Structure formats: structure tokens, C-alpha cells
Amino acid sequence: MKNLTMLTDLYQLTMMQGYLMNGYRDKEAVFDVFFRNLPFKGGYVLAAGLEQVVEYIENLSFGEEDLAYLRTLNLFTEDFIEELRTFRFTGDIDAIPEGTPVFPFEPLIRVKGRIMETQLLETAILNLVNFESLIATKASRVVTAAHGGPVMEFGLRRAQGPDAGVLGARAAFIGGCRSTSNILAGKRFGIPVSGTQAHSWIQCFPSELEAFRAYARAFPDKCLLLVDTYNVLASGVPNAIKVGLELEAKGHHFQGIRLDSGDLTYLSKAARRMLDEAGLKSAIIVASNDLDEETIFAIKAQGAAINAWGVGTSLITSKDSPSLGGVYKLAAEGERDVFHPRLKVSENISKITNPGIKKVVRFYDRAGKAMADLIALENEVFEEGKPLTIFDPIQTWKRKTLKNFRTRELLIPIFRGGKRVYDLPKLKDVQSYAKTELDTFWDEVKRLTNPHSYIVDLSTDLFELKQQLLLTIHQDIKSNNQQGVEQDVD
Q1: How confident is the model over 53-68, as pLDDT tens digits?
Q2: What are the angstrom distances between the C-alpha of 486 and each of 30, 256, 342, 490?
Q3: Which residue, 167, 186, 425, 460, could crosslink 429 as a Cys pair with Cβ 3.0–4.6 Å?
């Protein structure tokens, strides 16, 4: 992975210099990465991008060309430039593993260390985690709609640039896609690659039949033919059948056909009948053409005879929900590992942060199904044999008593003292883990439209700490206003 140290916003560097000039060089801070709203009006998000965050941290250093450029901005002192020359991350990072279903306000990543270091990490971490988590989630929804039919990611040509195309293919694989058309993603991440031919191949030959035969000669055991260049049922499918039977007669296996336009439900049913009547019952039908999870769900509901799906633009661009909106907020500050909880206040309730050093605890019933998540303070303990009553932090009368549960803490150590202590899993293992984790949630939570809201509450200790800090801030503002000092509390 290329060095992304300079992939940051200017204000990260100006704040870092400000900390240095004001004697805060060794002040420590804890930041949380979380999002506030679920995309797609869905029920969950799949965490992704951690591997790229790890690589970013391990390559974090300013080169001489970087320092020379920063000097040209006429903003930074030589003392600060010299500080950057030896800059390395020396703090701690905990994170929820890639492929884990996560929910609003849960810390996906917790960064602890010198504020000079932790401040810089904000932009790049959000850039990596927001995008990959969004695409992994979109892919998971598409795969859910396909209900067992393989989904191939075909979006590279429509992605917003090369990085989005490559990392988007990686995220889509985490979300459950079987393969990608993207050769670079296949090479870099070991993702299976797939693809056949374009309409231009068919058009380059004197006839559709000759084009099909030419492709069959080149790839006799990987022959899947695009049948909608001229007329699907009058030309494309009959010609594909001829070539398929010729291949089968020579001892090869005819793979099938791809539909890329028209009424996919009607055409697939008709094509299936034609293939079966010709004796090509094992030939598959692949569909593409601006598909997304809603379209696939509707087509399947109408009884389409489609075996696999190629999904491009809507997946790689997350067309209906273009951003996740993850944020990086200060939760505590201090010195020498003694931290004080910090809170951001806003008149928008959803923007009031949760203070302190926190963890996320997932509660499971004895059948292994997820019951609820609790955002709690780091040192809290929940006894598995003891009933626990939790409550909604906004509508506090909504309560639920958990019994006969087992618990799991989702945040795990990634870096300690700047050194990685986490072995990055293989991508195929991340994909398998994501599927296993999603299976622990009821189908109602994974429903594509109007999903059941999964419970995510604050622990009693965290809730009380938050209320106490809110009251203290309110009293301080009231006291200052009485002294004629105006305050902006948002």
C-alpha cells in the first residue's frame, strides 16, 4: 500500500502545531470512530477497511518531499517541521474486526495516545473505513436479495476512480460477492475474477453465430455467451444453443448465457425453457443490467429463472446512499494515562457524543442469536449468570431484561505502543466470518425494507456519566452567562 501520510486535512496539521506551541506535546487523548445513521434505511452496517487502516498506520511517516511541500505553505514553524520529521504513531488502537455487523454510535475504532498523533489519524481512517464499510454493506444487501445465487461485482468502469474500484471490489467480497471483474483487485487481494465478452465482441464478427463459435474455440470450457446483442429469443438463445450443443458433442461443458437488457424475468423464463428443451439443462443464466438489491428481489419474486447476478454501478458507487457519515470524536483527554471524559454538546440530540473510554458488548441468547448491544465504560463487567435490565438512552421507559445470555466484547487490540499485535486475516476468512456473524442476527434485522431495529443501549454507568457531564456543562454555561459571557453550546 502506498504511503498515505499526506492524505489528511490541513486543519489536522494546524491543530498539531497549535498543540505543540501551547505545551500540549505530550497531552493524551482518546478518539472514537462511529457513525450516527444506518445507510439504505437498512438494519446494520458491515465493518470494513481495518486492513487498510493497519497498513496506513504502519507506513505513517513524513518524507523529505512532504516536509518541503509543507514549508511552501508558509504556515508551519521549523520546530513543527522537525517534529514531523521523526513522527511515528506510538499509541494504542482497538477495533471491531472487519465483517462484523455494527450499529449507530458504536465505536468501530478506538484510538488512544498523544494528541499530536491521534489528531492526525482522523482523516485517513474515516476515508478508509467509511467507504469500505458502505460498499461491504451494500454488497451484503445485494447478496441477501440474491438468496443464494452467486453475485459478481462488475463495477470498475463506473467506480469513482481507481482506488474506489479496487477497494470497492475488496469490500464487496467481504459483503458476500463471489467474484469481481477487476483484475487488479483479484491480483492484490486474491479475489476470484470472472467475466465473459462485451457486445463489441459479437458485433466484430460477420454474424452472431460466428462470434459465439469463435469465443467457444478460444474458451471451450469457460464459454458463457452474451445473447442480447440483436434479439434474445429469436437469435441470441438459439445461436447459443447451437454452440452449446457443439461444445457438448466435443466433450466440453457449455457454461450458459448472460442477459444484459430487456425484461429479465420474462426473458430468463423463456430462455430456460429453450435451453432445457435442447438438452442443456445444466447451462446457467446470468443476469446483469443496472441491478441492485431491490430489482433483484423483485425479479426473484416474479419467478425469474436466473442463476447468478452481475452487479455493477449501483454496488460500487453505493448509488442510493453515497456516504456512511462516520465521524472521529474526542471521548477523553489527560496525561500519563490518566484520562478525563469529554463530551460534545449539541441541540441535535444525535450529535451529543458518548464520553469516556468505552467498549461494545454484544449479548447472545443460548441459541447463539444476537439479543442486544451495550456501549459501556471500559472497566464495566457483566455477569453472564445474572439478569441485566437495559434501557433506551433517549426513551428511557423502553426497557428489556436480558437473561441466560453470553457476552462478547467486540473491540479487540490492534496496536499497543505503536506496534501491531493483531494478525490480519486472509480476505476469504473475513468473508466467511461476515457470513457467520450475519447468521447470528434474526432475518427481521436483515430485511431489506423496514427492518427491525436492533437494540443498542448505553450501560447505566455510561448513561449516568453522560447526564452528569451534561448537567455540569449546563451549569457552567449558566454561570458564565450570568457573568455576561456569551457561549455557543452547539
Answers
A1: 999 999 999 999 999 9
A2: 29, 72, 21, 13
A3: 425
